[in-house]
Design goal:
The protein is of the alpha/beta class and about 270 residues long. It has helices at about 15-30, 60-65, 70-85, 85-95, 110-115, 120-130, 145-165, 180-190, 190-200, 210-220, 235-245, and strands spanning about 1-10, 35, 50, 100-105, 130-140, 170-175, 225-230. The chain has two domains: about 1-185 and about 225-245, 3-Layer(aba) Sandwich (Rossmann fold); about 190-225, no CATH class. The protein is built from eleven helices and seven strands. A seven-stranded parallel sheet has the order 3-2-4-1-5-6-7, sandwiched between helices. Helix 2 (about 60-65) crosses helix 3 (about 70-85), helix 3 packs parallel to helix 6 (about 120-130) and helix 9 (about 190-200) packs antiparallel against helix 10. The chain is globular. The two termini are about 35 Å apart. Bound molecules: guanosine-5'-triphosphate and magnesium ion. Guanosine-5'-triphosphate binds next to helix 1. Magnesium ion (MG) binds near residues 42 and 105. GO terms for molecular function: GTP binding; GTPase activity. It holds the Pfam family ATP_bind_1. Keywords: GTP-binding, Hydrolase, Nucleotide-binding.
């Protein structure tokens, strides 16, 4: 059995930074983890790249040879990956053993997890290779100070949940930039009543019905809750990793230490 995190979320939400912090954390605690680059447009890495989509296809070549723009080019690259699951990915995965833990750093274009099937097929392939997979969805905490942006982040996360049908952990990234932690707290386990009243305050009266439906939708999928991620704090990284490990049943036999997240925790 292998273990995998699929790290997704909007552009710039902090996916690659999370991957690199996770790598450093695991290195410090003596745990083995391999980070895979799935972004054909990525250029600089703060982590050792264990597998790299750019060895399969280069975005630059695609844009040049097919005359595509950056986003069309990216979708082409991902479809190429999809077409090569049985050979390229299978060969690459052969380098990893039972019990190996892979983290896939994905591109930020949200169409990849909202309506094209490539990630879903990618995940099916991982499952067929005996991997337990969990989605880690990052949303930038800077966005959710505004309830309308929070709702849009929730909808994107929901569409990934529905598309991918995997265990799913939502993270609020960049908590170090949040000055008013109280303001954020109501969004961690959002209550439909609170969302509704905030939406109604924020938007013109003719949206009241839509606001009600949206807040109920978030409520019905009660799995939309967020864990704050503060990369400065070891306790935060440890807690997040513990939650994800639980989701993919990693370390059920081993002694995995999990500490409760305490928002008032000092820096470690
Ligand atoms: N303060 C702060 N900045 C962060 C954090 N995480 C990421 N950033 C910054 O946010 C920007 C985007 O971070 P990335 O990790 O590249 O985001 P990404 O989701 O991988 O972006 P794409 O791959 O382009 O979609 C960079 O300037 C990071 O330095 C964080 O925890 N705190
Ligand atoms: Mg990135």
């Amino acid at each position: 059995m292998g273990y995998a995190q699929l790290v997704i979320g909007p552009a710039g939400s902090g996916k690659s930074t999370y991957c690199s912090s996770l790598y450093q954390h695991c290195e410090t605690v003596g745990r083995s983890i391999h980070i895979v680059n799935l972004d054909p447009a990525a250029e600089n890495f703060d982590y050792p790249v264990a597998m790299d989509i750019r060895e399969l296809i280069s975005l630059e070549d695609v844009m040049e040879e097919l005359g595509l723009g950056p986003n069309g080019g990216l979708l082409y690259c991902m479809e190429h990956l999809e077409a090569n699951l049985d050979d390229w990915l299978t060969e690459e995965l052969d380098n990893y053993l039972d019990d190996d833990y892979l983290v896939f750093d994905c591109p930020g274009q949200i169409e990849l997890f909202s309506h094209v099937p490539v990630l879903r097929n990618f995940v099916e392939h991982l499952k067929s290779k005996n991997f337990n997979v969990c989605v880690v969805y990052l949303l930038d905490s800077q966005f959710i100070t505004d309830v309308t942006k929070f709702i849009s982040g929730c909808m994107a996360s929901l569409s990934a949940m529905i598309q991918l049908e995997l265990p799913h952990v939502n993270l609020l990234s960049k908590m170090d930039l949040v000055t008013n932690k109280r303001e954020i707290e109501k969004f961690l386990n959002p209550e439909s009543r609170v969302l509704l009243s905030e939406l109604n305050q924020r938007m013109a009266p003719q949206f009241a019905k839509l606001n009600k439906s949206l807040s109920e939708l978030v409520d019905e999928y009660s799995m939309v809750s967020f864990i704050p991620l503060d990369l400065r704090k070891k306790s935060s990284i440890r807690y997040v990793l513990g939650q994800i490990d639980n989701c993919i049943q990693f370390g059920e036999d081993a002694d995995v230490k999990v500490k409760d997240f305490d928002p008032e925790d000092g820096d470690e």
